[in-house]
Amino acid sequence: MDRVRLFYKDMGEIIGGDGCSVIRLVDEAEQRSLCFICDKHMADQLTMRLNSAAPCYKLLPEVLLGVLTDESTQLEITIYGIMSGEYLVGVENKATSTFKPIRMSDAVLLHYIAKVPLYIMNSLMDTQSTAYVPNPVGLSVPINTLETKRLQQELERAVDEEDYRKASLLHEELQKRQEV
Questions:
Q1: 8 A C-beta contact, residue 145 and residue 97
Q2: Of the candidates 180, 156, 11, 81, which has an alpha carbon nearest to the alpha carbon of residue 171?
Q3: What is the pLDDT of residue 142?
Q4: How many domains does the chain have?
Q5: Residue 94 sits in which domain range?
Q6: In Å, what is the CA distance from 168 to each residue of 23, 114, 134?
Q7: Are 53 and 31 members of one domain?
Q8: How far apart are CA 133 and CA 82, in angstroms?
Q9: 117, 108 contact by CB (below 8 A)
């Protein structure tokens, strides 16, 4: 299986995004990055873990990982596709060959807390990633990873701003989703 290993790099809040944030993952060489949007709840969960002063040892993910210590060393996370604006992600237990789907943001939280290896299929990394920039002014998210509701909002904004090229791209993505 041709995969690229990813690591959590950073997170930034989306201005006017109802508390949503963009999470950035990078490859080992820090040459390519993959960004995606997470909701406010997951941004808060990750922020608690990033802030070492926050006591997280009694929270459910940490407690479960503490109880299942032996199991967590057998886990791998793989991003293997994208459908209707969502990355398709699974957690595999290598010891039992059990594979369970998981939300992208939950997978990143698991990766961060338990140091579970996180991978993406090479072909997906090629199409979804951008060149890594250490201190960017902003982060770009692939259009095909936006929720349909957000795509519609962005389409309206693009039309209002008379950015017809952007509006065309957004409309095209919405059309693709209706065909599926």
A1: no
A2: 156
A3: 83
A4: 2
A5: 3-145
A6: 26, 42, 31
A7: yes
A8: 24
A9: no
What residues contact residue 76 under an 8 Å CB cut-off, 6+ apart?
91, 92, 94, 116, 117, 119
Q: Are residues 168 and 156 in the same domain?
A: yes
Cα 141 from Cα 149, distance rounded (Å): 15
Q: Is 67 helix (H, G, I), strand (E, B) or coil?
A: helix
64 vs 84: CA distance, rounded Å = 31
- What are the angstrom distances between the C-alpha of 112 and each of 44, 100, 109, 173? 14, 18, 5, 31
Q: What is the mean pLDDT of residues 23-42?
A: 95
Contacts of 102 (CB under 8 A, 6+ apart): 77, 89, 90, 91, 110
Q: Are residues 60 and 134 in the same domain?
A: yes
pLDDT at 21: 92
pLDDT of residue 145 exceeding 90: no
Tell me the pLDDT tens digit for each residue of 62-116. Answer: 888 888 766 657 899 999 999 988 999 999 998 889 999 999 999 999 999 989 9
For residue 180, what pLDDT band results from cuts at 50, 70 and 90?
Answer: low
Residue 25 near residue 140, CB atoms below 8 Å: no
